[in-house]
Specification:
globular, 17 helices, eight-stranded mixed β-sheet, four-stranded mixed β-sheet, 2 domains, single chain, alpha/beta, Rossmann fold
Length: 347
């Protein structure tokens, strides 16, 4: 399978290494403003991976030109900030062809639907089918030039796949490398079971003084306390109520975390115990300003669309909306309008 991975950060490079390790051909793409990430791989296409996966491989190419990046691709993996999805749709609209598949890795809430809608708005003559993972299946970080370290795997995450993609190599790759997985037939289900967006946004906002003082801090060790956990649990309850309203099976965050990480020592105790004692989370740094992905991505593409879907389903989403309003009060940005919106419940 020939794959174009979109996103040359640690997540994209980690996914590229995982694909290479299973014998797939990988082309690396990023948007023109991130050319500094692409140029080193144009000079030397080697990728080295350490940690949970030890592998060395060579990219088939690297470019900021969408025409070049998509020309030979069988599958297109979007491993970028969710805010880039709409821009990528505009860049890709004139270069897609029949037979290609898009993989949202992850898409956040409704990512594949939003990407397809953006392609339509951009006048794309081709609307590829999409698969969507509920979470980035790896924990990764840069370890040096051309080198990425994978420090954790996720298991039992949800993978949306329409019937037409059941046998596609892009879908089978997930089962080959990350099994056991849970299969979904509903395009909203993966995003609503993404494990990070509630925790990231709430902990960041309720540690405002720590964030704004600009001193390094550990997100899961110094940022958590029982009072903050009560807010997280209240929003998680609203999330599971929304799942029920949409006809989906509800999954509590505690159960998702245990399923993802039980083979790496995750407990099945309280949510506070899980997040504050899991060793791979110990050194995760907290954000140093409110422009971090924990707000610009987790809140805007997780909590905001969840709030809109709740409103459309007749649910008050009291605590979800409270946290969104708190973020707006902090920054002056109207996140309900600038985040991902749903004006009707997708079929």
């Amino acid at each position: 399978m020939r794959v174009t991975v979109c996103g040359a950060g640690p997540a994209g490079l980690g996914i590229a290494a995982c694909l290479l390790s299973r014998g797939h051909s990988v082309f690396l793409y990023d948007m023109p403003e991130y050319g500094d990430r692409i140029r080193p791989f144009q000079q030397d296409p080697s990728i080295r991976c350490t940690g949970k996966l030890v592998h060395s491989g060579r990219l088939a190419g690297a470019s900021t030109d969408p025409a070049e990046a998509l020309r030979e691709a069988d599958a297109i993996f979007l491993v970028t900030h969710a805010a880039a999805h709409q821009r990528l749709a505009r860049l890709f609209a004139g270069h897609l062809r029949e037979g290609q598949v898009v993989v949202m890795c992850p898409g956040y809430v409704g990512g594949g639907l939003a990407f397809t809608a953006a392609l339509q708005e951009a006048g794309s003559g081709v609307l590829p089918p999409f698969a969507e993972a509920s979470s980035l299946p790896i924990i990764s970080q840069m370890a040096g030039p051309g080198e990425v370290s994978i420090t954790g795997w996720k298991r039992n995450f949800l993978l949306y796949r329409p019937l037409e993609l059941d046998e596609h190599p892009a879908v089978q790759w997930f089962y080959d490398l990350y099994s056991p997985l849970q299969t979904s037939r509903h395009p909203l289900e993966p995003g609503l079971n993404e494990i990070n967006f509630i925790v990231h946004a709430v902990v960041s906002l309720l540690n405002a003084s720590t964030v704004e003082h600009g001193q390094p801090w550990t997100f899961y060790r110094s940022g958590l306390c029982p009072a903050i956990m009560k807010v997280i649990e209240a929003i998680d309850q609203e999330r599971t109520q929304l799942e029920e309203a949409l006809g989906l099976v509800p999954h509590r965050l505690t159960d998702l975390l245990f399923a993802f990480y039980k083979d790496q020592g995750m407990s099945h105790g309280s949510l506070y115990e899980q997040l504050s004692t899991f060793e791979p989370f110990a050194k995760v740094p907290g954000p140093l300003d409110f422009s971090s992905r924990f707000i610009s991505e987790d809140l805007c593409y997780g909590l905001v669309p969840m709030a809109w879907l709740g409103q459309l389903s007749g649910l008050p989403m009291e605590y979800t909306n409270l946290v969104i309003r708190l973020a707006t009060a902090y920054t002056g940005m109207d996140y309900r309008e600038t985040g991902r919106r749903f004006l009707q419940i997708p079929n």
